[in-house]
Every structure is written in structure tokens, then in C-alpha cells.
Amino acid sequence: MENETRHKQESLETLQARLDEWGIDLEKLKAKAAETTEEARLELDVQLVTLESKLEAGKQKLAGLADTSEDAWHSVQGGLESAWGSLSTAFEEAADKFRKH
After folding, report:
1. Looking at residue 35, which CATH number applies to its domain?
2. How many domains does the chain contain in total?
């Protein structure tokens, strides 16, 4: 039981660190968007809004997981990994679009 609790805590800490990194990345992308042409900025702003929404959803999901029981933690891990993969992909795609502008 102690190992499971420690594993859960380590997982939550890792996920929180990644959310923090994405928050920093988002701020960098916002700064880059401000330096682009008006036309490009309009397109990039759509991406930024999407990323902000996904990042907020990730924060809420993580906050909800902190209080879950060990059994519940095991049952949501697969879905959580999928959601995190989706968020990661969204950030990578947005970063690619910013590099093109």
C-alpha cells in the first residue's frame, strides 16, 4: 500500500511538473504570437485559446486526482495517460505552427 501511495504521489508530481512546463511554453508562444503579423496572429490566437483550454482542463483533472483512493487511481490511470498524450500532441502541433510563422 505504501508503494502504491508513493507511486501515485510521484506520478502526480511528474504530471504537475509537466503542466508547469506547458504553462511556461504557453507564455513563450504568446510572446511569439505578439511579434507576428496581424494575419498570422489571428490564426495563432486560435491555437493559444485551444491550448489554454486544454491546459486548464489538465489542471482540473490533476486536482481531482489528488484526492482519489488507490483503487480509483488505478482505474483512471489509462484515461489520464491518454488525456496527457492529447495535451502533449496539442502543444507540439501548436509549436509547429508557430515555427512556420
Report:
1. 1.20.5
2. 1
Task: Report the pLDDT value the prediction gives residue 1, as an integer from 0 to 100.
Answer: 62
Q: What Å distances lie between residue 56 and 50, 63, 101, CA to CA? A: 10, 11, 25
Is 66 in contact with 12 (CB distance < 8 Å)? yes
Query: What are the DSSP E strand ranges found in the chain?
Result: none
Closest CA to 94 of 27, 38, 29: 29
pLDDT of residue 19: 92
| Residues of the chain predicted below pLDDT 70 | 1, 101
DSSP codes, 24-77: HHHHHHHHHHHTS-HHHHHHHHHHHHHHHHHHHHHHHHHHHHTT--HHHHHHHH
Q: How high is the mean pLDDT of the chain?
A: 85
